[in-house]
Design brief:
InterPro entries: Terpenoid_cyclase/PrenylTrfase (IPR008930). It comes from Microbacterium enclense. By secondary structure, the chain is mainly α. It has helices spanning 5-12, 16-25, 31-40, 45-51, 84-93, 105-112, 129-142, 147-156, 176-193, 197-212, 241-255, 264-272, 303-319. The longest helix is centred in the middle third of the chain and has 18 residues, at 176-193. It is globular, with a radius of gyration of 19 Å.
């Protein structure tokens, strides 16, 4: 079922951070139109609000992955989403040009930001695959030297094909969540910088890990992971079939390959969660401190989720 005009108009009546994507990927607008809309992200709406939160030292909320002064033993609900890595991720995903941040943000972070884990330098990454994936993509966007992180991903890929953020605690099996975050970051770096042949091969091998499981199922038992259907925006670090499909769409377009047939079950899961009005609703909004909300509460129709779902289904129905 194609989106009707009312749904497309509703999607287009959104913050510029989403509107330019709707124009480019659903409305087939001329490049001049969606590029002009994307340029507005840094000047108004979500993008401008978040840019205004950047500290003079280049960080956000005074910390690398957690805000300054965060009480790790306290009773705060959920992960806080205000620190540097999360804020950069949002700006990058919304299409903000790197020049809209403070001048030489990459250099400012090199000098001023340290990871909460062992006080490690920001652009060197740390031991967590998801954090390193965010940092790799953010560094490629900002022009930082992230060669060490590229090498880290090649060296730390597990024998079953993917990555697990808990490898440092002894985990030897890959994780859906860690692997998806990793391939997303690697692809972003590859699109911006060309990446490296070894890292490209690692990405393709890790994508095979997910494809063997059809994005949904445990390979050992065939049981469907309960969180595969957990639709929630912002995605941030969380796995869902929709987010994984969005990556495989981007990877196929980048690599010049058709959709893999093993995505079919996940596609049908996304199709089945469409509401009668042609939208997808927010089901699992992330908990935790944030600068400001960018999507609706649970139970309400989500422009962001509806956009991602329609974009994935359009790609599949056109190319599969």
């Amino acid at each position: 079922m194609e989106p009707d005009a009312a749904v497309l108009a509703w999607l287009h009546d959104s913050d510029p951070a989403l509107r330019w994507k709707v124009e480019r990927d659903l409305l087939d607008a001329p490049a001049a139109q969606w590029e002009a809309t994307r340029a507005r992200v840094a000047r108004e709406g979500f993008g401008a609000q978040l840019l205004a939160r950047q500290d003079e030292d280049g960080q956000f909320a005074g910390g690398a992955h957690f805000p300054a002064g965060f009480d790790f033993g306290g009773d705060e609900t959920g992960q806080p989403w205000t620190a540097t890595s999360w804020s950069l991720m949002s700006l990058r995903e919304w299409g903000v040009d790197a020049t809209a941040l403070r001048p030489d943000t990459a250099g400012l972070l090199e000098r001023n930001a340290r990871w909460e884990y062992d006080d490690l330098p920001f652009w060197d990454g740390e031991v967590d695959a998801c954090i390193n994936a965010f940092t790799l993509a953010n560094g490629a966007w900002l022009g930082a030297d992230v060669a060490g992180i590229r090498d880290w991903f090649v060296a730390h890929r597990l024998s079953d094909g993917g990555w697990n953020c808990e490898w440092v605690e002894g985990s030897t099996r890959s994780s859906f969540h860690s692997t998806l975050n990793s391939v997303i970051g690697i692809l972003d770096d590859e699109r911006r910088t060309g990446g490296t042949p070894d890292l490209h091969a690692a990405r393709r091998g890790a994508e095979e890990y997910l494809l063997q499981r059809r994005l949904l199922y445990r390979l050992s038992t065939g049981e469907k992971h309960p969180w595969a259907d957990h639709l929630g925006y912002p995605f941030r670090h969380r796995y869902s079939a929709l987010r994984a499909l969005d990556h495989f769409r981007a990877a196929a377009l980048h690599d010049g390959t058709p959709p893999d047939a093993r995505l079919a079950d996940a596609i049908e899961r996304v199709r089945a969660t469409r509401d009668p009005d042609g939208t997808w609703h927010q089901a699992f909004p992330p908990r935790g401190r944030e600068w400001f909300p960018v999507d609706v509460p649970a139970g309400e129709p989500s422009r962001w989720l509806t956009f991602f779902a329609l974009r994935v289904l359009r790609w599949w129905d056109t190319h599969a």
